[in-house]
Write a structure and sequence with these properties.
This protein is of the alpha+beta class. The protein contains 13 helices and eleven strands. The chain has helices spanning 64-70, 91-94, 167-173, 186-189, 192-196, 265-278, 298-317, 325-332, 336-347, 369-426, 435-457, 463-502, 508-566, and strands at 2-6, 25-28, 37-41, 47-51, 55-58, 210-215, 218-221, 230-240, 245-254, 261-264, 360-361. It has a five-stranded antiparallel sheet with strand order 4-3-2-1-5, with no helix packed on it. Strands 7-6-11 form a three-stranded mixed sheet, covered by helices on one side. β6 and β7 form a beta hairpin. The radius of gyration is 30 Å and the shape is elongated. The protein starts with a strand and ends in a 7-residue tail after the last helix.
């Protein structure tokens, strides 16, 4: 057991946690944290879990009183545990108890498994709900991986001297800006609070950098110097274990590699979870939903393929996501052994969450923080309105699909049957029956029955594509409230630190450091907003063009059928 001291108050919210108070002496059972949590005993004899970032471990031979004199409450020195944890979520809420438990993208225990051993239908994804969700609107990933595995394809670059804060030097001065009381907010859980306050350790070498530049509409991501696209084709049912297990594989062909690779949905799912874990301030497009039953039905396979195509298009067009080493590995690896090595390298990536913010190179142009906050507020209102309107259009389009497949087809079938009945009635009195007229009316009935079938088939040509795009944007928009919350939290810390500096309770250079790190978050969010608008304009232009073109073609085909039927009446006496 180790001695420790509480740096901040923490109030337990479930039976696995214990409450601790600032400056309380603690007994810590092990200095190894479990997803940002330590287990120990407080001064009242209660045993349980508490956040590692709230505790300072006191080295053997140093009394608690000596430790009080040698460090401030926020002195994140080498004697303190867990300067940054990717997730500060309650173990009871995140599914983590006395051991690791995760079924979304966690591969710590499958060292002996090959790359197609997971069942596509092992879990069913539910729609995201507000509360207790990660930065991108999904349950937080409680994964932490020791050790860094640098990219094989990127050279190490020295950090820019002005735009990257040496957080260790800042920590020695001791930040006294208060921490958020809600330790389960995404601002805290994502690690952005720790980054803003200078508590994220600076890496000696950073293997990846992402640049933000000033464009005509403000900050924007620097374009990928090697742009590419990737097709998703040929969903094929495969079997293993002599047919006991079945799955669908998709053929992916990236333009910059030229060689096709074959991936299952669970490979996409692994990549998606890595993206959520790493890219804190980026709206990662949601994958198409999983389905527990009917995974091999033709309609479901076709729908998933269409939505994977859209997902891939957004991934390859994003200047940051498209350059991610894990994504490149996903698109290019052909060898099972190399796949496993690259997978583990991605899982052990240290530049995730708050540390990902250390990879940014931002412009030197000055931006007034109030102007940035106003811009973010405008985008927040816009995204909420767009989310509501996308949901409205999606609801209307879904109802229209239902009518096409059901109501419209039935009504045209009824009309066709009625015309057929008229034709049959006219044949009941042969001396006065006109064979040509009866035949024309009967053909009219069959034409309207055919039109009903055309209506039933039409959503595959237009409404399905519209719903695919709307579904993708519902996912993208659902990410932004949490991302905007990160920026709002950063603004609040800047205002608080400046007030403390004005009151003489904080050094001005420390307040300037908080402001400088807030600029990083602000530039990143504005760049993401800019990219979202660019893609939105392109995607909705294509969506509307495709819908109108297909509608025109559809009604032209209907018109041709009716004109052909009309000509049958031209030569009747």
């Amino acid at each position: 057991a180790l001695k420790g001291r509480a740096l901040y108050d923490f109030r337990s919210e479930n039976k696995e946690e214990i409450s601790i108070q600032q400056d309380e002496d603690l007994v810590i059972f092990s200095e190894t944290s479990l997803d940002g949590w330590l287990q120990g005993q407080n001064s009242r004899g209660e045993t349980g879990l508490f956040p590692a970032s709230y505790v300072e471990i006191i080295p053997a031979g140093i009394s608690p009183n000596h430790a009080d004199n040698s460090s401030s409450p926020a002195d994140f020195s080498s004697t303190q545990v867990s300067l940054y944890s990717p997730s500060v979520a309650s173990p009871a809420r995140s599914g983590v108890g006395s051991g690791f438990l995760s079924n979304q993208g966690s591969f710590e225990d499958d060292d002996d498994d090959d790359w197609d051993d997971w069942d596509d239908g092992c879990t069913v994804v539910e729609e995201p709900r507000a509360g207790g969700l990660g930065t991108n609107g999904h349950p937080p990933l409680n994964l932490s991986y020791p050790g860094a595995y640098p990219s094989q394809h990127m050279a190490f670059r020295p950090k820019p001297p002005l735009e990257r804060q040496d957080s260790l030097a800042s920590a020695k001065r001791g930040s006294v800006v208060g921490r958020n009381l809600n330790r389960f907010s995404c601002f805290v859980r994502s690690g952005v609070e720790a980054f803003i306050l200078g508590d994220v350790p600076m890496m000696a070498k950073i293997a990846e950098t992402y640049s933000i530049e000033m464009g005509p509409r403000g900050p924007q991501w620097k374009a990928n110097p090697h742009p590419f696209a990737c097709s998703v084709e040929d969903p094929t049912k495969q079997t293993k274990f002599k047919g006991i297990k079945s799955y669908i594989s998709y053929k992916l062909t990236p333009t910059h590699a030229g060689l096709p690779v074959y991936r299952r949905y669970k490979h996409f799912d692994w990549l998606y979870n890595r993206l959520l874990h790493k890219f804190t301030v980026i709206s990662v497009p949601h994958l198409p939903e999983k389905q527990a039953t009917g995974r091999f039905e033709e309609d479901f396979i076709e729908k998933r393929k269409r939505r994977l195509i859209l997902w891939m298009d957004h991934m390859t067009s994003h200047p940051v996501l498209s350059q991610y080493e894990g994504f490149q590995h996903f698109l290019s690896c052909l060898d099972a052994k190399q796949w496993k090595m690259g997978k583990r390298r991605a899982e052990r990536d240290e530049m995730v969450g708050a540390s990902f913010l250390l990879t940014f190179q931002i412009p030197t142009e000055h931006q007034d923080l109030q102007d940035v906050e106003d811009r973010v507020d405008t985008f927040k209102a816009f995204s909420k309105k767009m989310d509501d309107s996308v949901l409205q259009l999606s609801t209307v389009a879904s109802e229209l699909v239902r009518k096409h497949v059901g109501g419209f087809r039935k009504e045209f079938q009824k009309l066709g049957s009625a015309f057929q009945a008229i034709s049959h009635a006219f044949q009941m009195d042969p001396p006065f029956s006109s064979e040509a007229l009866n035949s024309a009316i009967s053909h009219t009935g069959r034409t309207y029955e055919a039109v009903g079938e055309m209506f039933a088939e039409q959503p595959k040509n237009d409404l399905f594509q519209m719903l695919d795009t709307l579904s993708l944007y519902q996912g993208l928009l659902s990410n932004f409230p949490d991302i905007i919350h990160l920026q709002k939290g950063a603004f609040a810390k800047v205002k608080e630190s400046q007030r403390m500096s004005d009151e003489g309770r904080m050094a001005q250079d420390e307040a300037d450091g908080i402001r400088r790190r807030c600029r990083v978050v602000g530039f990143a969010l504005q760049a993401e907003m800019n990219h979202f608008h660019q893609r939105r304009e392109l995607d909705f232009k294509h969506m509307m063009q495709n819908y109108l073109r297909q509608q025109i073609l559809f009604y032209q085909r209907v018109g041709q059928q009716l004109e052909k039927t009309l000509r049958m009446y031209d030569h009747l006496p």
